[in-house]
Amino acid sequence: MKDIVNMYYPKINNNESIKYATRILNRIEKLSKISENKNNTTRLYLSIEHIKTNKIVEKWMKLAGMQTWQDQVGNIYGRYEACTKKQPAILLGSHLDTVPNAGKYDGILGVLTSIEVVNHLNKNKIHLKKAIEIVGFADEEGTRFGITLLGSKALTNKWKKKWLNYKDKNKITIAHAMKNIGLNTNKICLAKRNTKDIKAYIELHIEQGPYLYKNNSSMGVVSAINGAKRINCTFTGESGHAGTVPIYMRKDPLIATSEWILFIENELLKSKTKIVATIGKINCYPGATNVIPNKIKLTLDIRGPKNNELNKTISNILKKAKEISKKRNIIFNSKKYYSTKSIKCNKKIKNIIKKTINKTQGNCPSLASGAGHDAISMAKKWPIGMIFIRCIKGISHSPKEKVLKKDIIKTIKTYMEIIYNLTEKI
Ligand code: HGY
Ligand code: MN
Ligand code: MN
């Protein structure tokens, strides 16, 4: 097949890539200041900051020649038509919400880089065989209401009505928060996208891990996204006076928890499964210096590339919690509240991405994503592909998150080529 991409489509040249990367970084700075507090970046679903961000991103999409709209769960969209009307779209995107005290690039970089490649098409008056759509997802992190992927789940019609009653830490429900920003909770189902309207979903995202950094590569292709489970765990013992109860008589749930956490670490250090576990939230009740705690509540986030290994490891870890509790006359309870299976990226798309990155970078590391992404939701209905860009030392979910300008310059050129190839070949 003639190499149409090289013959007709205008590459992004060095000067353009520097100009586009500079604009991306300026816009990232601007968005990082839209936060619920001024000394860090925290942007939550259905907040004033969410709407403010949507408005600014929508303006940038319009400047890139896109028609824009916000859907019924608060995702912001742009569409750039194909050379003929009513063509299905290659949907590019990522999320615009953040974790608390976030970095500047997680999610945001993918949306802004996508806007730049459409801007390049518009500037050159190029319309491709497929439409290009961009979506800024409203809630990938689940920071405010505890359920992740709320933006992308609407596209695949996986939204559950019961979620409308889920509350944030101020006891505000999703339903109430939606009404506050003018969303109609009876119309959530209209955010569903027809399968035939989208050919593929492509997400450019920072790696959020150390692999590309250690490999000294700007970009990599994602092979799969690890499965993840989140479990609420409680250890219940007996509170007492910190000064009088002898150690051997105590039923201290915090000691049991500590023994369990060290067991988990030991098990995973020994195992070859690449499974990772994190206790990100832990509360000790009643929480007084001179009182032996009676209850420990914690969250276990555990992830891995293979579903059966992950399930086996989880049952082994929970079994151990019960054994430790029995030995210490403590009660252990757990309840899973989030679960996604590991999913593979579409082979054909992965190969197109890999080939293009190989061409521009001379190599193309292929890696599984330890982090979750909206692509997990989208894979339920459409073929997905993901491109990783290096983040320094693999640091993410932290204000120390950093991406080099030279990597953005390289990536934007490659991303444009990838999109040209995808519109021709899938
Ligand atoms: O937790 C995750 O993997 C993603 O950053 N939400
Ligand atoms: Mn994140
Ligand atoms: Mn992310």
TrEMBL record:
Binding sites annotated in the UniProt record for Zn(2+) 2: D106, E141, H397
Gene3D superfamilies: 3.30.70.360, Zn peptidases
UniProtKB keywords: Hydrolase, Manganese, Metal-binding, Zinc
Keyword Zinc: yes
The keyword Zinc is annotated on this UniProt entry: yes
Record text on cofactor binding: Binds 2 Zn(2+) ions per subunit.
Domain Peptidase M20 dimerisation: 226-327
Positions with a binding annotation for Zn(2+) 1: H95, D106, H205
Binding site for allantoate: R230, N290, R303
GO molecular function: hydrolase activity, acting on carbon-nitrogen (but not peptide) bonds, in linear amidines; metal ion binding
Cofactors demanded by this protein: Mn(2+); Zn(2+)
Residues making up the signal peptide according to the UniProt record: none
Entries under NCBIfam families matching the protein: hydantase (TIGR01879), PRK09290.1-5 (NF006771), PRK09290.2-5 (NF006775)
SUBUNIT field: Homodimer.
Record family assignment: Belongs to the peptidase M20 family.
Protein name according to UniProt: N-carbamoyl-L-amino acid hydrolase
Organism: Candidatus Purcelliella pentastirinorum
